[in-house]
Design brief:
28% strand; alpha+beta; 5-stranded mixed sheet; 411 residues
Length: 411
């Protein structure tokens, strides 16, 4: 990709009232555009990151048997009426211009919709278990939209739902989903904690969240300094310094960003929408269900909060929009083009800063965008390139073919 042809341009100054790192850096570097409070457009650079995150999520959800589908964003209110959740002050009501009453809501959750679909296809224990997921835009009437893409009124989410013939089978899958989630976060460069939490509007039972420790987080959690036990303060009886109920170690209070959650739903939705199956003895039973969410756009914001430097972003290799930023400081550009073509042919995603601007502006732009590697072509490098990792001021001089090898292995 030629930077001169890139649709977006970096801003010279931080956007007004942007306090969190993701709100400040993502907009300034041209990854997102803030349309209104809690509503963002994802520009070409930002969309590339979201696609990388989504690809990781898809691989892990497919790996535990999830089947991808796409459910409607415009939901007939009958679905939420069936469970009494239409009255929950979370969604946006929608009515046509000629309608007097609210007929639809913008989708903020999809348990009811998929459960209703399942009634057409599940009749026997032989039809179970199954799990299905989607990656879709959700809409929630968030009164405190803030912190950039961490808390929005419109956001991108992966939601998976599982259907089981027994609590035992659900418990088995719940652990599979837990481990898949931890792999997702590790692959995205985050160290997420598995935290006991409350169910809110989804379920009355104890659920689990995945939290990333960050000073801009809105959740308070208690984490054992000795083992992995953690609890959300909303349900916890622990206090800072108390003994861990699992191992006796000292508990520490921390602030964190929730990046995912998994919910045991029991038979709440299958009872409301009459989803039953016949067991081996012909007895009709309600299906046991679970719900599992990951905020795709929120994950992008969390990565930004954890991985950034004073000068700008610092993308993990796995989700960076491009692997290397090629800075051209030559007069004629032919050597930079040769390097660009060779690296691209080797399967490496390259952003080539071919703009006619000063070296200082190019370095500043590279620092702001935060790609994992920087490759410099100049009069001093000759037919070679100077390759450096993000944050390194000086790199190693090497041939373009050696640079391709280094980049393909991530150094």
């Amino acid at each position: 990709m030629l930077q001169s042809a890139l649709f977006t341009k970096a801003l010279r100054d931080d956007p007004k009232d942007a306090l969190s790192a993701n709100a400040r850096l993502l907009e300034r570097a041209g990854f997102v555009h803030k349309n209104s409070a809690g509503v963002y457009s994802y520009l070409p650079l930002g969309l590339r990151v979201l696609k990388k995150i989504s690809a990781i999520v898809r691989e892990e959800m497919d790996g535990i048997g999830g089947q991808e589908l796409l459910l409607p964003a415009l939901l007939d209110r009958k679905y939420l009426d069936a469970t009494g959740r239409f009255a929950v002050d979370v969604g946006y009501d929608v009515r046509g211009k000629k309608d007097d009453a609210v007929q639809y809501v913008l989708g903020w959750t999809h348990e009811e919709v998929l459960t209703d679909i399942a009634t057409r296809f599940v009749s026997s224990y032989r039809d179970l278990p199954f799990s299905a997921y989607q990656i879709q835009t959700k809409f929630r009437n968030e009164p405190r939209a803030k912190s950039g893409v961490l808390r929005g009124r419109e956001f991108i989410m992966k939601d998976l739902y599982s259907f089981h013939a027994s609590q035992e089978d659900f418990d088995r899958f719940y652990l599979l989903a837990k481990e898949a989630y931890l792999r997702v976060f590790r692959r995205c460069g985050l160290d997420a904690l598995y935290v006991a939490a409350g169910g809110g509007a989804f379920t009355a039972s104890v659920t689990h969240e995945f939290q990333v420790v960050s000073p801009v987080g809105e959740d308070e959690i208690f984490v054992c300094s000795k083992c992995s036990h953690a609890e959300n303060s909303e349900i916890s009886k622990l206090v800072d310094g108390s003994a861990c109920p699992a191992c006796g170690g000292a508990v520490v209070k921390k602030t964190a960003i929730e990046v995912g959650n998994i919910f045991p739903l029991g038979t709440k939705y299958s009872e409301a929408l009459d989803l039953r199956f016949a067991d081996e003895n012909g007895e009709r039973k309600h299906v046991v269900m679970g719900s599992y969410g990951i905020g795709i756009s929120r994950l992008m914001g969390a990565v930004t909060e954890v991985h950034h430097a004073e000068q700008g972003l610092a993308w993990p290799l796995s989700i960076a929009p491009f692997r290397v930023h090629l800075l051209d400081f030559t007069r004629e550009g032919t050597r930079a083009k040769a390097a660009y073509d060779a690296l691209s042919s080797a399967g490496i995603e390259v952003l080539w800063d071919d703009r006619d601007v000063s070296p200082g502006e190019k370095f500043a732009s590279a620092d702001l965008m935060g790609l994992p590697f920087r490759a410099v072509v100049s009069e001093k490098t000759g037919d070679m390139v100077e390759l450096a990792k993000r944050g390194e001021r000086a790199g190693k001089l090497m041939s373009v073919s050696d640079a391709a090898g280094e980049l393909n292995h991530g150094i």
